[in-house]
Design goal:
The chain has helices at residues 46-58, 62-73, 78-90, 98-110, 115-126, 134-146, 150-157; strands at 2-4, 11-13, 23-24. The protein is mainly α and 159 residues long. It is elongated, with a radius of gyration of 28 Å. 35% of the residues are buried.
Length: 159
């Protein structure tokens, strides 16, 4: 009169069992969802591409991180410009290029991404990716100091 429910240990009235027999109902077979290919960076919004790049970066996959960061950076997302600049600076996932690092870092700083201020100041100060320019270095170090960057303050005081 009762059969076992497939998901718990309780019983429920049976519509298929005879009055003298209890049957066990099998759980329906479930198929795993088919894996979907990850979206390409071009199919994502700039913010989605940034987020995907950060995920790849956390996993140490610099090559994929760079693809997603570059996609978002080329669409004007300042944080992505900063991230791809660091990858170019270090040659992580992309060919090392101080010129590309400078271009993206400058874009990020000019867009108001505060983490880029000191980095850009250091690039001007050391002539990495651009000609040495003490005036520009001081300008960007001062902007960094205004955001509370103590390292920028030490550098500025030693110039």
């Amino acid at each position: 009169k009762y059969e076992w429910c497939c998901y718990c240990t309780t019983t429920k009235p049976s519509t298929t069992a005879s009055n003298t027999q209890v049957t066990r109902q099998e759980a329906p077979k479930q198929t795993a969802p088919k894996p979907t290919a990850p979206k390409s960076a071009a199919d994502m919004t700039a913010n989605e591409a940034l987020s995907a790049g950060q995920g790849y970066l956390r996993n140490g996959d610099y090559s994929n991180a760079s693809k997603y960061f570059k996609s978002a950076a080329d669409r004007g997302l300042a944080e992505a410009q900063y991230e791809i600049a660091l990858l170019y600076k270090n040659g992580a996932g992309v060919a090392k290029s101080t010129a590309n690092a400078f271009t993206y870092m400058k874009s990020a700083a000019e867009a108001g991404f505060t983490k880029a201020y000191r980095e850009l100041g250091e690039m001007y100060h050391g002539g990495r990716g651009t000609a040495k320019d003490r005036t520009q270095a001081e300008y960007w170090y001062k902007k960094a100091v205004d955001t509370g960057d103590q390292k920028a303050l030490r550098i500025l005081n030693n110039m």
